[in-house]
Design a protein that fits this description.
There is one protein chain. The protein folds into two domains: 30 residues; 148 residues, Glutaredoxin, CATH 3.40.30.10. The protein is globular, with a radius of gyration of 17 Å. With 182 residues, it is of the alpha/beta class. The chain has five helices and seven strands; from the N terminus they run αβββαβαβαββα. The N terminus is likely disordered. The longest helix has 29 residues. It starts with a helix and ends with a helix.
Length: 182
């Protein structure tokens, strides 16, 4: 009997979660797509970069060809950046077992500040610190800026600033980019 109640709870929970996702799709899917950033052109190859993440691992954009890459430019004292982190985490969790999708956060802050921040504010992306040079490479001066690259390294989605439907469009873009062939 105890297991029946647990099973019923899990089924109801799953249906509720699915129902909520459907509600979000209806709600955010009807909203206009967030404005494109002025830093990129959809369909254009993103200039490659090479950097080391806060754990000492090298990230080379060219090595990520064949994968969908999600990039977030942010900084700790940016209220809109902090506002979107819980939603960005949900997206990262959704794809945690998918080796074909990579998440990279490029923080403007130094390594110690980033590590201290993510200890108390989990952010499920790989983190590159001291990202001002990378932001400068793309002339980014508005935060947060989000980019989804297709498997060829071309810009598939990009937006700057906070919009409540940005996570919806990031997820939609990931799914569409995964379907595109190389």
């Amino acid at each position: 009997m105890k297991h029946s109640w647990l099973l019923l709870f899990l089924v109801c929970f799953d249906i509720n979660a699915y129902s909520q996702k459907g509600n979000d799709d209806l709600k955010y899917g009807k909203m206009p797509k967030p404005a494109e950033s002025t830093y990129f052109i959809t369909g254009q190859m993103l200039k490659s970069f090479s950097a080391v993440d806060v754990n000492g691992n090298k990230i080379m954009l060219n090595d990520l060809k064949g994968k969908v890459v999600v990039i977030n430019f942010w900084f700790i004292e940016c209220p809109p950046c902090r506002m979107e982190i819980p939603e960005l985490n949900k997206i990262a969790v959704k794809y945690v077992t998918d080796p074909g999708v990579v998440f990279v956060a490029i923080a403007m802050d130094d390594k110690d500040a980033v590590n201290k921040f993510i200890k108390t504010n989990p952010f499920g992306y790989r983190h590159i610190d001291n990202g001002k040079t990378l932001a400068g490479l793309y002339k980014i001066n508005l935060f947060p800026t989000n980019i989804v690259l297709d498997k060829n390294g071309k810009v598939f989605f990009h937006s700057s600033g906070y919009a409540p439907n940005t996570p919806y469009w990031i997820t939609k873009s990931i799914e569409e980019a995964k379907q595109k062939s190389l």
